[in-house]
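To the team - NAP complex, inputs and output below.
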Amino acid sequence: MKAVVYTEYGPPDVLQLTKVEKPAPRNNEILIRNHATTVNIGDIWARNFKNITPSKFTMPLPLWLPSRMYFGITRPRINILGSEFAGEIEEAGKDVKRFRKGDQVFGYRGQSMGANAEYLCMPEAGLVAIKPVNMTYDEAATVPYGALTALSLLRKANIQRGQKVLINGASGSIGSAAVQLAKYFGAEVTGICSTPGLKFVKALGADKVIDYTREDFAKSGETYDLIFDILGKSSFSSCRNSLKRNGIYLLASFKMKQLFQMLWTSMTGGKKVICALSSESSEDLVFIKRLVEEGKIRSLIDKRYPLEKLAKAHLYVEKGYKTGSVTITVKHNNKKEKL
Ligand SMILES: NC(=O)c1ccc[n+]([C@@H]2O[C@H](COP(=O)([O-])OP(=O)(O)OC[C@H]3O[C@@H](n4cnc5c(N)ncnc54)[C@H](OP(=O)(O)O)[C@@H]3O)[C@@H](O)[C@H]2O)c1
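Output:
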């Protein structure tokens, strides 16, 4: 089968279209004929992990070494990137009960990656679900990472109907899902991003948008029940006055300092810092599929590339041009082809 493989860390051109062995499903696995995948920030980092120093890493230092070892110290251990996918089941292992051949599915492989390929196997119990009927493969592939992460983190902050919620980083994968999910949970939502993303975030349903290149939300005098900062670009001290009494400052990207703030604020009461790692489940993916089918979650594709042009897609995302999702279409050519 065709796959884009990388055997050394580096710039996008380390990604090479190659022929690799087609995977075979185990008894508890499904074999998916993949039609679409995506490029997210995680793919960019994994492609060049050698250059992600502890200071560039957006998570606490004790997580850097295990991540580096997981992805490979000097060269990549996992050679095919791509965490999201959408495709059709070609074969189901003999113990599989939830799915059958021909089902259209979508899902998320997290750090195990491997979706930049024509075929992939997923355990039946993994993060895979029937694809929303109202989405194409391209659209469906863009949903799982952002929506699963945002859903998990918003739940950890116990989001409630009627709350005023601020999403800092609202045009990205997690932020754009967080805007839509917060609206679904009945919050009044303000989204923050730079100028090119404002229209996009408004179209997702944000009640208000703020351009961080022109305005500092922390100086506006507005207060929120929940401030969700995706990249951790603000700080608890600068946001303290923008939080209501008992307000929550939620971080998707954080360091040891914010973990200590979390510990301290959990003991002192009042305004709280929450740093959390997402914990996704296949039930959440089924819930997200339902929200998509009810029109509560949409996918807005910024650019589409064929698998053969994956390196170009990486360059686009790496430069920070992405507003919405970048999707990779996997075309299957049954004739013998030259790679
Ligand atoms: N806690 C967890 O379990 C977990 C799980 C997965 C990922 N993460 C973390 O999530 C982060 C990636 O999130 P993502 O995939 O959503 O990223 P993304 O798609 O690259 O989006 C980044 C967002 O941040 C905005 N942004 C950039 N600079 C900003 C600034 N100075 N102020 C405010 N907003 C700014 C961008 O807007 P513009 O483009 O308009 O600048 C965009 O909306 C990583 O740091 C990763 O470690 C955490």
